[in-house]
Amino acid sequence: MTTVFLITFFTMLIVVAIMAIGYIIQRKTITGSCGGMSTLGIKKVCDCDEPCEKRKEKMRREAAHNQPEINISQQH
């Protein structure tokens, strides 16, 4: 019984290592279902009329980050 467990464990370990090497070689980032939905152009998953506070804060940070910087300096 122990030998079956060890064979299974090492087989799974090898499969995970091969998958990791594949991602490293392809230089891709791992994306979950959220990443997959955004590639389809779907920004909002839920049907809420009003976003939650966490989403509002994220949107505020993104808007502030995307604002162009205005550099006002006095030159003599």
Structure description:
With 76 residues, the chain is an all-alpha fold. The protein has one domain. It is 61% helix and 0% strand. The longest helix is centred in the N-terminal third of the chain and has 25 residues. The model has no long low-confidence stretch (mean pLDDT 76).
Number of distinct beta strands: 0
Query: Structural class, judged by helices and strands?
Result: mainly alpha
Shape: elongated
Radius of gyration: 23 Å
Helix content: 55-70%
Helix-strand pattern: HHH
Distance between the termini: 84 Å
How confident overall, as mean pLDDT? Answer: 76
Structure annotation, total helices: 3
How many domains comprise the coordinates?
A: 1
Low-confidence stretches: none
Describe the largest sheet.
none
What's this model, at a glance?
Residues 57-76 are annotated as: Disordered. The chain is mostly helical. Helices cover 61% and strands 0% of the residues.
Indicate the topology.
Blueprint: H1 2-26, H2 33-39, H3 53-66
Which features does this protein show?
76 residues; mainly alpha; 3 helices; 0% strand; elongated
